[in-house]
C-alpha cells in the first residue's frame, strides 16, 4: 500500500513538471526568462534527486531519482551555454537549427542515462543501495560534455567581458562567471572524491555538487536583482508607454481591464480588475445612432477592429479618438483587446476651422465665378461692338477687311474659288430727304434682314459704308454667285418697307466679282483684296449707270 502511494506521488510530480513546462513555454514571457527558468530547473533536479535517493530503500525508486538527477546534470551545461549566448546577444545571430543542434549531445546523454537498466554503461551497483555505484563510460561522456558546455558558455561570457565598456554589464558578467566557477569547481571535486580511488578517506563526502549549484545560483540571483537583468526591458517599456500622449488599456476576453497607462485615466475611469466602461464611452459618441451597432460589435464580434470618436465632458470637453484592436496569441486564439485613446481636440478644432475657411472660400469662389461670367459677357459685348455695325447687326468694315485678308490668303494658296458681292440701296439719299433719316435707318435694317436670311453661316455679310454692303462667298464659283445675286436682288425688290410714313418700295444695285482658275495671280493678299474691291466697286457703278436694280459682273 505504501509503495503504491509513493508511485502516485511520483506520477503526480511528473504531471506537475509537465504542466510547469507547458505554462512556461506557451505563455507570453520573454525568451530570456524562459531560458533562465529552464536552466534553473535543471539545477534543481540534481539536489532534488540526490535528496529523494536518500529517502527511499526501494531500488526502482532509487534508480528513478538517480536518473532524474543526472538528466538534470546533462542539460545543465547546455542551459548555461544557451543562457550565456542569450545574455550576450549572441543567440539572435544563430538559426533555430543551430541551437537545437547544440542540444543533441545533452539529449543523447539523457537518453543513455535513462536506458541504463538495459545496457549498464552509465552506472552499476553491487548492493541494494544505489548510492554506492560504479560509473561506466556514459558517465565520463556526461562529465566531459558538461565541462565542455560550461567552458564554451564561460568563453562567450569572457569574450563579451573583454569587449564591452558598460561597467554595470561587466559587473553582471563577473558575477555569472563567479557563480559558474563555484559550480564547476565543486562538481569536479565531488567527482574526483567519490568516483576515484585516490582519496578513500573522502569517499563518503556528500553534497559538494549540490552546494556548488546553490552557491552559483546565489551569484546568479545577485547579478539578476542587482542589475535588473530581467526587469530592465519591462521597466523601459512601462516608462515608454506611460510617457506616450496616447492612452492605452489592455482588456481580456471577458472585457476586464488588465492594465492601463497613466494617460488612459484622463479619458475614462479605468480600474484594473474592473470591466471596461464601454457604456460610458458610447454615451459620448458624436453620432448617437452609432452606439447600438458599436455595442453589438463589441460584445458579439470580439475579433472585429472598432473605432469611433467620443466627446468627454469631464472636467473639460475634449474629443477622443478610440480604437479597439483584437489581440491574438501565437496559435491564433483570441485573448483580448488593446484600446487606444487619442486626444484629438486640437485636430478637431483645426478641422472645424478648415471647414469654415472652405465654406468662406466656396462663397468667394462663387462670387469670383459670377464676376468672371459678368466679365466674359462684357468682353463678348465689347467684341460684338468692335466687330459689328450697331444699326444693321452686320459685321463692320474693319472686321470685314481683317477676315478677307486671311480668307483670301488661304484660298489664294490653295486655289479655292470665291466671290464678292458689293451692293447699295438705290436712291437712298432721296429716301432720307423725303422720309427722314430714321426711315432711312429702318430701310437699311429691313434690307440687311432680308439679305442675311438667305446667306450661309460661312458667308461674311458686312456694312461697307453708308448704304453700301459687302458679301463674301467662300467656295463659290461665278455662276453660283451670279444666281445668288439675282435672287437677293429679286427678294429685296419684291418686299416693301412698312413705316409710319407709308410703305416704301426699294431696289438694290449690285457689282460682283469672282475668282477661280487662273484669276489669283501672285500678288500680296492685301493688295489683291484692294484690287478686287476696286473692280467690284466699278461693277457696282456700272450697274447704277445702267439703270439700277441690276447685277453687273466685273
Mean pLDDT: 80
How far apart, in Å, are the first and last alpha carbons?
A: 147 Å
Total of DSSP H or I helical runs spanning 4+ residues:
19
Ranges with pLDDT <50 over ≥5 residues?
A: 1-10
Kindly name the structural category. Answer: alpha+beta
In helices, the fraction of residues equals 55-70%
What sort of overall outline do the alpha carbons produce when their principal axes are compared?
Answer: rod-shaped
Topology:
Blueprint: H1 2-26, H2 31-54, H3 59-87, H4 96-102, H5 104-114, H6 116-119, E1 123-124, E2 134-135, H7 137-163, H8 167-195, H9 208-227, H10 231-243, E3 247-252, E4 257-260, H11 264-267, H12 278-283, H13 290-300, E5 306-312, E6 318-328, E7 334-343, H14 345-387, H15 397-414, E8 418-425, H16 428-435, H17 437-454, E9 460-465, E10 468-474, H18 478-494, E11 496-499, E12 502-505, E13 508-515, H19 525-545, E14 551-553
Parallel strand pairs: 13-14
Antiparallel strand pairs: 1-2, 3-4, 3-7, 5-6, 6-7, 8-10, 8-13, 9-10, 11-12
Helix pairs in contact: 2-3, 2-9, 3-5, 3-7, 5-7, 7-8, 8-9, 15-19, 16-17
Amino acid at each position: 500500500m505504501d509503495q503504491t502511494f509513493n508511485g502516485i506521488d511520483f506520477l503526480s510530480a511528473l504531471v506537475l513538471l509537465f504542466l510547469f513546462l507547458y505554462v512556461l513555454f506557451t505563455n507570453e514571457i520573454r525568451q530570456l526568462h524562459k531560458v533562465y527558468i529552464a536552466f534553473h530547473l535543471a539545477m534543481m533536479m540534481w539536489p532534488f534527486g540526490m535528496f529523494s535517493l536518500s529517502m527511499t530503500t526501494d531500488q526502482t525508486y532509487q534508480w528513478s531519482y538517480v536518473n532524474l538527477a543526472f538528466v538534470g546534470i546533462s542539460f545543465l551545461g547546455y542551459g548555461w551555454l544557451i543562457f550565456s549566448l542569450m545574455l550576450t546577444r549572441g543567440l539572435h545571430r544563430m538559426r533555430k537549427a543551430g541551437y537545437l543542434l547544440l542540444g543533441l549531445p545533452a539529449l543523447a546523454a539523457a537518453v543513455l542515462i535513462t536506458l541504463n537498466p538495459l545496457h549498464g554503461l552509465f552506472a552499476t551497483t553491487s548492493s541494494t543501495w544505489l548510492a554506492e555505484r560504479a560509473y561506466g563510460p556514459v558517465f565520463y561522456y556526461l562529465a566531459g560534455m558538461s565541462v565542455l558546455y560550461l567552458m564554451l558558455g564561460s568563453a562567450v561570457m569572457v569574450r563579451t567581458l573583454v569587449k564591452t565598456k558598460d561597467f554595470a554589464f561587466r559587473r553582471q558578467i563577473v558575477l555569472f562567471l563567479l557563480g559558474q566557477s563555484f559550480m564547476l569547481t565543486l562538481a569536479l571535486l565531488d567527482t574526483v572524491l567519490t568516483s576515484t580511488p585516490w582519496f578513500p578517506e573522502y569517499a563518503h563526502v556528500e553534497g559538494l555538487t549540490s552546494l556548488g549549484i546553490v552557491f552559483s545560483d546565489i551569484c546568479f540571483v545577485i547579478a539578476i536583482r542587482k542589475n535588473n537583468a530581467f526587469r530592465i526591458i519591462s521597466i523601459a517599456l512601462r516608462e515608454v508607454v506611460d510617457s506616450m500622449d496616447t492612452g492605452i488599456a489592455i482588456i481580456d476576453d471577458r472585457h476586464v481591464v488588465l492594465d492601463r497607462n497613466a494617460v488612459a485615466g484622463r479619458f475614462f475611469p479605468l480600474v484594473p480588475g474592473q470591466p471596461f466602461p464601454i457604456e460610458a464611452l458610447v454615451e459620448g459618441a458624436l453620432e448617437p445612432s452609432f452606439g447600438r451597432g458599436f455595442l453589438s460589435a463589441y460584445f458579439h464580434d470580439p475579433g472585429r477592429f472598432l473605432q469611433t470618436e467620443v466627446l468627454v465632458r469631464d472636467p473639460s470637453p475634449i474629443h477622443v479618438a478610440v480604437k479597439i484592436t483584437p489581440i491574438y496569441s501565437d496559435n491564433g486564439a483570441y485573448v483580448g483587446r488593446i484600446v487606444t485613446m487619442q486626444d484629438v481636440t486640437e485636430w478637431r478644432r483645426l478641422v472645424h476651422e478648415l471647414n469654415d475657411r472652405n465654406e468662406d472660400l466656396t462663397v468667394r469662389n462663387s462670387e469670383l465665378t459670377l464676376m468672371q461670367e459678368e466679365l466674359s459677357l462684357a468682353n463678348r459685348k465689347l467684341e460684338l461692338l468692335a466687330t459689328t455695325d450697331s444699326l444693321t447687326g452686320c459685321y463692320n468694315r474693319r472686321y470685314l477687311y481683317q477676315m478677307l485678308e486671311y480668307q483670301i490668303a488661304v484660298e489664294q494658296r490653295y486655289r479655292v474659288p470665291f466671290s464678292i458681292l458689293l451692293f447699295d440701296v438705290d436712291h437712298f439719299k432721296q429716301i432720307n430727304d423725303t422720309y427722314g433719316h430714321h426711315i432711312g435707318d429702318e430701310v437699311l435694317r429691313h434690307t440687311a434682314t432680308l439679305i442675311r436670311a438667305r446667306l450661309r453661316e460661312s458667308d461674311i455679310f458686312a456694312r461697307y459704308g453708308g448704304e453700301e454692303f459687302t458679301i463674301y462667298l467662300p467656295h463659290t464659283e461665278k455662276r453660283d454667285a451670279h444666281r445668288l445675286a439675282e435672287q437677293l436682288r429679286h427678294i429685296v425688290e419684291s418686299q416693301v418697307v412698312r413705316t409710319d410714313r407709308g410703305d416704301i418700295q426699294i431696289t438694290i444695285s449690285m457689282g460682283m466679282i469672282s475668282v477661280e482658275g487662273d484669276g489669283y495671280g501672285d500678288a500680296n493678299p492685301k493688295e489683291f483684296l484692294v484690287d478686287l474691291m476696286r473692280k467690284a466697286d466699278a461693277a457696282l457703278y456700272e450697274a447704277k449707270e445702267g439703270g439700277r436694280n441690276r447685277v453687273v459682273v466685273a
